[in-house]
Amino acid sequence: MTTKRFTAEIYAGHTTDCGVLIPFDPSRIWKSAKPLPIGYRKHVGYAVRGTIGRTPFESWIFHYFHEWRMVVPGPALSAAKVEAGDSAKFSVRPHPTPATAPKFKAGPKR
Predict the structure, then answer these.
(1) How many CB atoms neighbour CB 83 within 10 A?
(2) pTM of the prediction?
(3) Is 4-96 CATH 3.10.50.30?
(4) Which tens digit of pLDDT belongs to each residue from 31-89?
(5) Fewer Cβ in 10 A, N or C end of the chain?
(6) Is the pLDDT confidence value at 108 over 70?
(7) What is the rounded distance in angstroms from the CA atom of residue 49 to the CA atom of residue 100?
(8) Which backbone phi and psi does 42 adopt, to 5 degrees?
(9) How far apart (Å, rounded) are the C-alpha atoms in residues 50 and 56?
(10) Closest CA to 48 of 63, 23, 30
(11) What count of other Cβ atoms lies within 10 Å of the Cβ of residue 57?
(12) Nearby residues of 41 by Cβ (< 8 Å), 6 or more positions away
C-alpha cells in the first residue's frame, strides 16, 4: 500500500504522549485497510508503521474531533530529538499485520 509522507507540527496531548494532525483520510488512501479498535475507549483506527525523520515507530491513526490524528510515541520523539511545538517529517504506511500492532494505552496525565 501507499506510503504517505508529510510534515506536521507535533502537539502535546493530555497525557505524556504527543500527536499530529494527519493531512489525509486513510480510509480513502488505503482502501483495503480495515479500521480496528485502537485499544482506547471505543475508538477505531488504522495501525501504522512509520518514521519521524529516520526514527521508526508504530502507532494508530484515528478520527477524533472531526480530524484524523496520530499518536506519536514518546520514545520515538526522544530518539528523533523532537518535541511538542516542533515540525517534523513523517512517513507512514499501513501496518503489515494490524491485529498484532501494539494497542494504544494512554499515558499518565500531565
Answers:
(1) 13
(2) 0.88
(3) no
(4) 888 888 887 778 899 999 999 999 999 999 999 889 999 999 889 999 999 999 999 99
(5) C
(6) no
(7) 12
(8) -100, 10
(9) 6
(10) 30
(11) 21
(12) none
Q: What angle do CA 26, 32, 35 make, to 5 degrees?
A: 55
Give pLDDT, residue 109. Answer: 63
C-alpha cell recorded at residue 97: 499485520
- The CA-based angle 99-55-69, given to 5 degrees, is 55
Put residue 81 in one of left, alpha, beta given phi > 0 → left and psi -120 to 50 → alpha: left
pLDDT at 107: 64
| Neighbouring-strand partners of residue 60 | 47
Indicate the pairing of strand 44-52 with strand 87-94: antiparallel
Whether 20 has a pLDDT exceeding 90, the answer reads yes
Residue bearing cell 509522507: 5
Cβ atoms 40, 19 nearer than 8 A: no
SS3 100: helix
Q: Are the beta carbons of 59 and 50 closer than 8 angstroms?
A: yes
